[in-house]
């Protein structure tokens, strides 16, 4: 990378910025640190988080370093509509899980993880599928966030990439280790406030440094007709639709979100989710505008690397103070997501692995806390090692995305439909995963009847996505009608067309196949599940603590 | 007109962020007061 094109801080300045950030964050956690933490507080803050902290934490967790770079890349590549196709869909997914989240809380008011609910509903195999996908996902997320730190530090200072990775790892672990989720939520608030303040300043600062609105207007001539179109099909098919499908799976499958869902006071779930939706959308779309502005001024990313867009724009047009603020913005975003991942993984190992499968619902709280902290240390080590060696995780990323896509329908159906069985859940996820791999890696030739069949299954997947959204807000009948009609309309458009968009087709297939198998296998059984059993099986682990107002 | 719309399109997002910043800030101050009044921990 040509570092001469970026503003360079001295080693001392960068170390001072990092020390101020991580030192300040650590000092903040001392406000809540107790000599003896309890397990329920460590995992979900005793289910008593208020609206302000809940919304801040949800937003900060959903925003990671890749959000800025991804939104800016989308703006630069697809023009006017690009930032919307990154930020809007990501934001809507927070809103989308709200109605399902209320159901999860109603069924299991004392839960710490979604896996516990699934364990009570189906047993260990389904629970461990969910838990393992979450752990894999969080490891990937940790690695990506530590990598972003390494890249930022190496671009803006003489320090090495590895130094940036290690500092972020140690810094995040340092303030999260003792109080777990409680520390994560409290620091998320401070980090989000800092991120928002910086975003509010940087976006207009870049625009006016470029020459103001007139420069943007003049720059419209540099855009292709597709880039100038707010309803660009190119942007919808290559960015919006695949991202929409991917983040839906992420929202349902990821413990960082469900952990906050179980932690927020039940009467505050709705305002928390709505505020987080708007907050996420505004920050991410806004920062995506920097990519659009780069396109409108004819800037070329250094070395063709889109991740250089925002640092380049900030370095070229803003003063060192703003560059320092941008540095804090990125470190804040990656740290807030990394601490959430550490808290999520510790809760999964504590509750899903130790609490349910080893201690059989009678865990030793002291041992449980030790296991949670040990998990954080090991996860940080793995994240730092993977990031330091810049390991290729594409296959792992694809695999986790597919797994999450395949579990969306079985998880939701298990919480609403009493006939879904453990066999139906497990076989649906496995079938969805296998068919995803066949489509994604083109293990069969995508021509003729096979391509047509896959496109039909993808149309079913599209119908499932839209049907679930309609079901969440409009109920079963509306969901079924919207799902069926969407599948028919999508089938009409997909046949002979979608085979050229392998990523989108494979993602939708994971939804479609898992849904068909889940429904088919469930209908073969006449068993009916009593949902009240879930509340009896999902318990608080510290008997001294009162149960929540569920 | 195009200039105005483009400026609005870029600047509306930091403005919304500012509104959310205020909402979350005020709500958190309320959370802190309630926690103090009821003598329980904030998180």
From TrEMBL, chain A:
It is a multi-pass membrane protein. Its main location: membrane. Pfam families: SSF. One of its GO terms (cellular component) is plasma membrane. It catalyses: L-proline(in) + Na(+)(in) = L-proline(out) + Na(+)(out). One of its GO terms (molecular function) is symporter activity. The keyword Transmembrane applies. The keyword Membrane applies. InterPro entries: Na/Glc_symporter_sf, Na/solute_symporter, Sodium:Solute_Symporter. It is found in: Cell membrane. The chain crosses the membrane at residues 6-28, 49-72, 84-101, 128-153, 159-178, 190-210, 230-252, 273-296, 316-335, 368-387, 393-417, 424-441, 447-471, 478-498, 504-524. Keywords: Cell membrane, Ion transport, Membrane, Sodium, Sodium transport, Symport, Transmembrane, Transmembrane helix, Transport. One of its GO terms (biological process) is sodium ion transport. Belongs to the sodium:solute symporter (SSF) (TC 2.A.21) family. This is Sodium:solute symporter family protein. It comes from Vreelandella maris.
């Amino acid at each position: 990378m040509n570092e001469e094109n970026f503003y360079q801080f001295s080693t001392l300045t960068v170390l001072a910025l990092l020390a101020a950030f991580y030192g300040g964050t650590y000092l903040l956690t001392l406000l809540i640190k107790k000599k003896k933490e309890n397990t329920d507080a460590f995992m979900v803050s005793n289910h008593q988080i208020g609206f302000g902290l809940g919304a801040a934490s949800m937003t900060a967790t959903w925003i990671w370093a890749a959000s800025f770079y991804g939104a800016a890349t989308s703006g630069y590549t697809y023009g006017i509509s690009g930032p919307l196709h990154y930020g809007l869909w990501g934001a809507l997914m927070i809103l989308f899980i709200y109605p399902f989240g209320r159901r999860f809380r109603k069924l299991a008011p004392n839960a710490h993880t979604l896996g516990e609910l699934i364990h009570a509903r189906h047993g260990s195999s389904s629970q461990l599928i969910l838990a393992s996908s979450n752990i894999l996902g969080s490891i990937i997320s940790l690695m990506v966030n530590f990598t972003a730190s390494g890249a930022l530090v190496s671009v803006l200072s003489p320090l090495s990439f590895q130094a940036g990775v290690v500092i972020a790892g140690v810094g995040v672990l340092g303030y999260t280790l003792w109080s777990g989720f409680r520390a994560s939520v409290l620091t998320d608030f401070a980090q989000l406030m800092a991120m928002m303040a910086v975003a509010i300043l940087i976006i207009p600062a870049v625009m006016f440094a470029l020459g103001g609105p007139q420069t943007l207007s003049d720059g419209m001539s540099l855009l292709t007709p597709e880039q100038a179109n707010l309803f660009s099909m190119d942007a919808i098919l290559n960015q919006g639709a695949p991202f929409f499908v991917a983040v839906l799976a992420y929202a349902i499958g990821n413990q960082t979100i469900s952990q906050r869902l179980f932690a927020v006071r039940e009467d505050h779930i709705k305002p928390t989710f709505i505020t987080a939706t708007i907050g996420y959308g505004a920050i991410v779309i806004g920062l995506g505008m920097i990519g659009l502005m780069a396109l409108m001024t004819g800037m070329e990313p250094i070395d063709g690397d889109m991740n250089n867009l925002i640092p380049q724009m900030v370095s070229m047009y803003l003063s060192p103070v703003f560059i320092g603020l941008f540095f804090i913005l990125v470190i804040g975003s990656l740290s807030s997501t990394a601490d959430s991942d550490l808290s999520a993984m510790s809760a999964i190992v504590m509750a899903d692995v130790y609490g349910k499968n080893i201690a059989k619902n009678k865990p030793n709280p002291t041992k449980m806390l030790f296991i949670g902290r040990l998990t954080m240390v090991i996860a940080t080590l793995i994240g730092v090692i993977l990031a330091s060696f810049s390991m290729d995780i594409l296959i792992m990323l694809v695999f986790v995305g597919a797994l999450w896509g395949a579990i969306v329908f079985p998880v939701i159906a298990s919480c609403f439909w009493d006939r879904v069985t453990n066999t139906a859940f497990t076989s649906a996820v496995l079938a969805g995963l296998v068919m995803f791999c066949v489509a994604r890696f083109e293990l069969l030739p995508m021509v003729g009847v096979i391509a047509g069949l896959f496109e039909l299954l993808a149309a079913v997947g599209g119908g499932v996505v839209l049907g679930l959204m309609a079901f969440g807000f409009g109920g079963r009948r509306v969901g079924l009608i919207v799902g069926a009609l969407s599948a028919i309309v999508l089938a009409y458009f997909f046949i002979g067309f979608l085979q050229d968009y392998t990523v989108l087709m494979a993602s939708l297939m994971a939804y479609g196949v898992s849904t068909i198998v889940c429904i088919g296998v469930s209908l073969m059984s006449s068993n009916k599940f009593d949902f009240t059993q879930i509340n009896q099986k999902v318990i608080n682990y510290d008997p001294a603590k009162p149960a929540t107002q569920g | 007109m195009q200039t105005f719309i483009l400026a609005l399109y870029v600047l509306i997002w930091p403005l919304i962020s500012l509104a959310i910043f205020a909402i979350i800030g005020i709500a958190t101050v309320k959370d802190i007061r309630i926690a103090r009044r009821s003598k329980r921990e904030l998180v």
